[in-house]
Amino acid sequence: MSAERDLARLLGDLRPALHPGRYVFTTVPAGTAPPGLAPVVTVAEDEGLTLVVPQGNADAARLSYDYVAAWITLRVHSALDAVGLTAAVARALADAGLSCNVVAGFHHDHLFVPYERAAEAVALLERLADRSGP
């Protein structure tokens, strides 16, 4: 299946999927990630390596964090050069007062939203898809 670029099709086929568990953002100096971590996202920054890991992994490794998130995957296969998807999703969530950290994977976009508002975020995304679909 080829990646979608058309914004209306992308929005109409979001199919948000909530992953079980709590996820946290933490940072470690480059090359010093504790063994046994299972990061779902890594980002190399000048200040160190950002890791998004299950909260239990961070707690076991005694890593500090401030933000506990839920992980939502948009199951639509979005092209990396598609225009407007991130903006439309972020706007829908921002209008409801929800923060959203977006990570683009090769096939899908992944959203990290406040854990306690995960169900609300999924419902908002489903409504966005319903309004945008055929």
From TrEMBL:
Pfam families: ACT_3 (PF10000), ACT_7 (PF13840). InterPro entries: ACT-like_dom_sf, CASTOR_ACT_dom, DUF2241. It comes from the Bacteria. Gene3D superfamilies: VC0802-like. Residues 70-126 form the CASTOR ACT domain. Residues 3-69 form the DUF2241 domain. This is ACT domain-containing protein. It comes from Streptomyces scabichelini. The lineage of its organism: Bacteria, Bacillati, Actinomycetota, Actinomycetes, Kitasatosporales.
